[in-house]
């Protein structure tokens, strides 16, 4: 029976031949192994997940609709982080704007800390609701909350009121880091996700940078309240775009209603070392029992040597399957074949609808916590949380540092974020250019044409090293200020921003590829730590700096981030074995 002991007892050849959830055939055998004397065909990349014939299937949407949707949700991610970060360089203006309500720096930093905390913990509620009622309704509600709370902040002039507004802003921003990557994953095939996830994470990271650059200028030259008015305009635009261009992307195509692939080698190939892997309809009763009879695979099946594996064919007409939940316009007869269903075109008015209900409320609220049994969830949440914490500390401490001698930048303190902007551009470009290319190249090298989620992960090794080293460089330059030390501060921030752009992009793609519909639940746990780590760091970093200077605190952050970074090694070494060990849970909870 598949499990941890079983997965780690397999030899290398058996692991390579195995097809647990997440392993898909990206290249057809005819494209990878041409017959002798026959010229090689042009490579054909399989489309996975397998699309249905329904135009309402997000995988079948027109390119313009996909582009409009991903642009709108990326705008949401950008604006959410813009609003979160723009107040940090504006904090020194508080005591000038409100002389009767003087506050210490550590008190004002609560505006940033509690916003980040709610941004993470808000997903404990929002993601289960999105899984029950659909992505669209949650994106609309979240953007509306973000807009209303920001507009209220523009008319609030007391400390507690602003703090409450910042909490609601964080809650309204929550879905931008969990529901949105799920939306991206549901629109694109496996071999397309890398570049579009890089596009999304670039928008996510650049929001903080642009907010950091502009927040100080707006507050100093236009006033404290204008920070909220500018943010309210952006939030309103985001809500409008969400209403018009973000359709529902959850589509029940029947996760286990696909043909079973039977191309694994027999155990004799591995005997006597280790028997061949098996994960079949017999060893997965939860899948077998929940499968509607009209969708069951009725072909010849040897359960001893078969893994659950979706069909890899790229021919839509010959292998597409009928979805388990059919829209109103679908049915023209009661037959079971795809040819017996007619689908109306997916119009703009159809894209504006919502009203899905999937039930199982208690289960949906508990499911994110169950994903803690998946090792990749822990590693992703620690690395992403550490990088967000690093950026939060730098973006808050940096402007406070540059406003003092020998720099005395005044309203120009936001220029510190230019280094981060350069790092984000480089991180997004390298990820977009290399992630999908590496996945395809790996599949072409394999005889079986399989694509593995772990293939993209080595790309993040330099980014993790840069992000970890950037913390130490920033601490050193802050500890020993000088006329040109601001250059080191810029470079350090750029190193961390590069990592913040690339690492979550690759992890989001990995989780979607490996765990499919469970990915959004994994994102909940990731964002909880993403909110907790910066919150804790921001609460005590000022006191630590006042006591020991900059080098020791940032040296401590470097050690912590270094430990988090090393956790990538087990995934690179045994990531597929871990997926084999957790296959029953992943398949049974789609």
Automatic annotation (TrEMBL):
Membrane topology, as annotated: Multi-pass membrane protein
UniProt keywords, alphabetically: Membrane, Transmembrane, Transmembrane helix
GO molecular function: transmembrane transporter activity
SUPFAM superfamilies in the record: MFS general substrate transporter
Location of this chain's protein in the cell: Membrane
Transmembrane segments: 73-91, 111-130, 137-165, 197-220, 226-246, 370-394, 414-436, 457-481, 487-510, 522-545, 551-574
Pfam family, one: MFS_1
InterPro entries hit by this protein: MFS, MFS_dom, MFS_trans_sf
Domain Major facilitator superfamily (MFS) profile, residue spans: 69-590
GO cellular component: plasma membrane
The name this protein goes by in its record: Major facilitator superfamily domain-containing protein
Organism this protein belongs to: Cercophora samala
């Amino acid at each position: 029976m598949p499990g941890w002991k079983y997965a780690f007892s397999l030899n290398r050849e058996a692991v390579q031949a195995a097809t647990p959830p997440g392993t898909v055939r990206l290249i057809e055998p005819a494209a990878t192994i041409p017959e002798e004397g026959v010229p090689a065909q042009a490579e054909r990349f399989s489309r996975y997940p397998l699309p249905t014939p329904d135009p309402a299937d997000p995988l079948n949407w027109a390119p313009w609709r996909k582009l409009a949707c991903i642009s709108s949700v990326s705008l949401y991610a950008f604006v959410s982080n813009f609003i979160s970060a723009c107040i940090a360089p504006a904090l020194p203006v508080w005591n000038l704007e409100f002389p009767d309500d003087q506050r210490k720096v550590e008190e004002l930093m609560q505006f940033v800390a509690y916003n980040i905390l709610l941004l993470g913990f808000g997903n404990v509620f929002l993601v289960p609701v999105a899984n029950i009622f659909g992505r669209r309704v949650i994106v609309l509600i979240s953007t509306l909350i973000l807009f209303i709370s920001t507009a209220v902040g523009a008319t609030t002039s007391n400390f507690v009121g602003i703090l409450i507004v910042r909490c609601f802003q964080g809650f309204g921003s929550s879905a931008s880091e969990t529901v949105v990557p799920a939306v991206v994953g549901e629109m694109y095939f496996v071999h397309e996700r890398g570049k579009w996830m890089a596009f999304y994470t670039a928008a996510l990271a650049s929001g903080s940078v642009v907010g950091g650059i502009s927040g100080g200028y707006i507050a100093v030259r236009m006033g404290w309240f204008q920070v909220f008015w500018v943010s309210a305009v952006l939030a309103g635009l985001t809500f409008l775009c969400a209403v018009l261009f973000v359709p529902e992307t959850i589509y029940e195509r029947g996760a286990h209603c696909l043909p079973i692939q039977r191309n694994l080698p027999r155990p004799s190939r591995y005997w006597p070392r280790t028997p061949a892997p098996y994960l079949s309809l017999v060893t997965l009763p939860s899948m077998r029992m929940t499968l509607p009879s009209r969708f069951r695979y009725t072909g010849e099946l040897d359960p001893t040597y078969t893994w659950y594996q979706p069909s890899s064919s790229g021919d839509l007409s010959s292998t597409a399957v009928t979805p388990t939940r059919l829209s109103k316009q679908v049915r023209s007869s009661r037959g079971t074949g795809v040819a017996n269903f007619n689908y109306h075109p997916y119009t703009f008015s159809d894209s504006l609808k919502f009203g899905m209900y999937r039930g199982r409320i208690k289960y949906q609220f508990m499911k994110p916590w169950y994903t803690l049994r998946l090792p990749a969830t822990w590693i992703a949440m620690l690395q992403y949380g550490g990088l967000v914490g690093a950026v939060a500390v730098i973006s808050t401490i940096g402007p406070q540092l540059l406003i003092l001698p020998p720099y005395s930048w005044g309203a120009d303190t936001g220029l510190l974020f230019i280094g981060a902007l350069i790092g984000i551009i480089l991180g997004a470009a390298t990820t977009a250019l290399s992630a999908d290319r590496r996945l395809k190249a790996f599949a072409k090298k394999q005889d079986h044409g399989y694509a593995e989620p772990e293939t993209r992960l080595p790309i993040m090794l330099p980014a993790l090293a840069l992000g970890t080293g950037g913390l130490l460089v920033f601490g050193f330059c802050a500890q020993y200020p000088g006329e040109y030390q601001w250059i080191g501060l810029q470079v350090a921030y750029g190193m961390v921003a590069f990592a913040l752009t690339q690492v979550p992009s690759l992890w989001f793609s990995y989780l979607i590829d490996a765990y499919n519909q469970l990915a959004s639940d994994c994102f909940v746990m990731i964002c909880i730590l993403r909110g907790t780590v910066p919150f804790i760091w921001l609460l005590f970093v000022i006191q630590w700096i006042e006591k020991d200077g900059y080098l020791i605190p940032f040296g401590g952050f470097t050690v912590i981030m270094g430990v988090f970074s090393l956790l990538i090694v087990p995934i690179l070494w045994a990531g597929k074995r871990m997926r084999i060990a957790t296959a029953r849970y992943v398949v049974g909870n789609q």
